[in-house]
Amino acid sequence: MSDPGPQSAPSPGPGDTRMGETIAKRQIPGYQILDRLGAGGMAVVFKARQLSLDRIVAIKVLPRRMSADSDYVERFYAEGQAAAKLNHPNIVQAIDVGEYAGYHYFVMEYVEGRTVFDDLNGGKVYDEAEALDILLQIGKALEHAHSQGLIHRDVKPKNIMRTAGGTAKLMDMGLARVADDAKAIQAEAGKLYGTPYYISPEQILGRSHIDFRCDIYSLGATLYHMVTGRVPFEGRDAREIMIKHVKQSLTPPDRYNLDLSFGLVKVIQKMMAKRRSHRYASTTEMMDDLRSIDFLLEVQDPEDSAILSTLGSAVENIEVSPPPPPAPTAKPKPRPAAKAKPHHPAPQPPKPIPPRTQWYLLAGLIASVLLNLLLLAMLWRS
What we know:
Strand content: 5-15%
Number of helices: 13
Number of strands: 10
Structural class: alpha+beta
Largest sheet: 5 strands, antiparallel
Helix content: 40-55%
CATH superfamily of the largest domain: Transferase(Phosphotransferase) domain 1
C-alpha cells in the first residue's frame, strides 16, 4: 500500500542537498560522516563514526529554516537533553547535541535493521503474535519515557526499528517533549505536531495540554496498520484523514482480518478512543492487557489444535470399555424423617362455560322472567 504525505520521506530540496554537501565536506568535529541515510521535513540524517569511541552513530541535522528559529533551537536542546536521560534497551539512545557551521545536530545510537514501515510498505500484514511481540517492546519504551515525564508525540511504523535479533526500538525523539513544560506548551499552542495517519485527535485540534495518551492513540493506530495492512483512516489528503480521526468511527480491525482475537480488537479500540478519558488511564494498564493477550496466545498452541482436529479419525477403531464402578462408600446414617407438612393445593382457575351451555342458561333465564310476569298479571286481576 502506498503511503503518501508526511509518512514518506520527501525528496531532498536544494537546501537539503547543500546542507548534505556542507556537512559531508567540512565534517562535524569529533565525527566522520560516512553516508547520508535519508531526509525528512524536519532534518537530514547521516551515518557517521564517533572518533573518540570508534563507534557508528546516526546524526540528525536541522535545516537552516529550523536553525534560524531561536525558540525552536532552545527547545531542541532541551528536548535532546531530556531524551538523553532515557536509558532503555527499546529506545534509541540519545548521545549528544551541538552546533556546527550554523547547523544544529543531534547524535544518537545507530541501529542496523528494518523499520516496521519497511515491512508494511512491502505488503506485509503481521500476525497477531508477531505484532504483540513488537508492541510489548515499544510499550515498555513508552512506559519508561512516560515515567520520566516525556511524551513522544510521533509514534508510527517509521519510528519503530527491528534489529536482526528481533529487538524493537523506538526511534526519533525529535518531537518528544516534557509533558509539563509550560514554556513549550505555550509556544506550541494551536500548532500541529505528528503524522496524519497515526496522530491523535487532541493533537489535530491543537490542544496544548496533551499527555501520554496521545502516544497510546498513535501506538494503537500503528498496531491497527500492522495487523490489517491498512491505516485506520484514509483520505485524499492530510486534512481529510485528520478530520476522520476526529469525527469518523473506527472500522473494527477484525473486519479486515478475521484471525484477530476478540481481546486484541478491544484493546485497539480502547487505545484509539476519540476521547482521552476513554483510553487507558496509564501505559502500565495498557501493557497489562497486552500481556494478557500474549499469554493466551502462548497457551493456545497451534500444534494442539492440529492434534485435536485429527483426533476423531485416529480413535474410530478403539474400543472404549465402560468405566469401573465407583468404590463402595460408607452408608450415611439415616436422618429422622421430617414431619410432613399439610398439603394445600393451589386454587384452580374456573373452567370456561361452553357456548351451548351459555345459550341454555340464557333461555332458562328468559323463561323464568316471563313466568314471573304471568303470575304477577294473574294476581293483579284477582
